[in-house]
Amino acid sequence: QVQLVESGGGLVQPGGSLRLTCAASRLTFSNYVMGWFRHAPGKEREFVTGISCRDGTTYYADSVKGRFTISRDNAKNTVYLQMNNLKAEDTAVYYCAADFRTPCDRPLSRMDAVEYWGQGTQVTVSS
Q: Could you tell me which residues come within 8 angstroms of residue 100 by beta carbon, excluding any fewer than 6 positions away?
């Protein structure tokens, strides 16, 4: 069974940075587009960012563009989310996601395309 395990969440002050990591196992990682979603209290789960299989094509929600960076290391079966200049509204549980059906040259961009989810990691931005 495919496993996606997130880590790196925590409490950070506004303006601070965090780096989330998602370790994938039991899949041919380089054949999956990957992404991050988040779920804030009282809101629906939303797309944050996605990345293609191998060529590094990325896509970002407008709310995080210029502040967040997604990357992946196919040799380590890992995807990262570097979050800078964090704001209170970034507070949420962040989920790693994987999809095999999206063409490999496109980034993951839609929640309904997600095939596998991680368990989530809490990010809290507060002073």
A: 27, 31, 32, 115
